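User: structure tokens for this one?
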Amino acid sequence: MDEQRKAVRKMQDYINDHINEDITIDDLAAVSAFSPWYARKLFIKYLEMTPAVYIRRLKLSKSALRLRDESCQILDVAMDMGFGSVDGYQRAFRREYGCNPKEYSTSPVPVWLFTPYLIIDKERNMNDMSEIRNVFIQVVEKPARKVIIKRGIKATEYWGYCEEVGCEVWGLLTSIKSISGEPVCLWLPESMRKPITNEYVQGVEVEPDYDGVIPEGFEVIDLPASTFLLFRGEPFAEENYVAAINEIWDAEKKYNPEFIGYQWDDTNPRIQLEPVCERGYIELVPVKKIV
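Assistant:
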């Protein structure tokens, strides 16, 4: 990773670690080891927005999740997130999401949360993790549920989906409270696709009786109670995310579920969780008991 990209990532990490504080361009300049003017210039070059806009949007996204999940006062959220005043926070929230914080906390609706693109070291070999690593496998049960999805046309994996549909979809899905705690990516079986839609989608699992807002362009499908083999790799360095995914895909291809009395189930979707370095890459592959 060249010095410019390293500097931008250092600024991103600093912002994430100090998001509840008042972050200045001098703080970012210090961590990047460049002048305030040049640090700001690099930030805009690689992230296409100023540090101030990036910080404001990230603060608002985190505050929205607090309002959705916690019983808290607007004043406390505004102060905790480092906004100068409640009025300023309310104006910023309305500009970003089209409603005021009080309305949102009372009746959360899907909103386009800001999910930053993190600069990673693309120059290092992302396909090599030469040390011996473990893949953990366990049987998990999922209850009957609904999933709110956004379909594309041809995508079969994440990057193709982003090109077709847009990476911003993840932020909207994150704003919808999920029974599994986070959005998911799914490879839909043939029975759940439409004639002109794709296999790979992003969505969020919700209760079977969900009656909340469905964002425009999204739809709801029912998923039955089903059994999965959860494949989880070891934690990985961020620049090795491609290798971490391939590690799990190789394990899935080699594993024979008949050893534990199951067979693969092609009537349910395969599920991909967001690659998070600290927990390892996770996929859930549907199975059914051998009868």
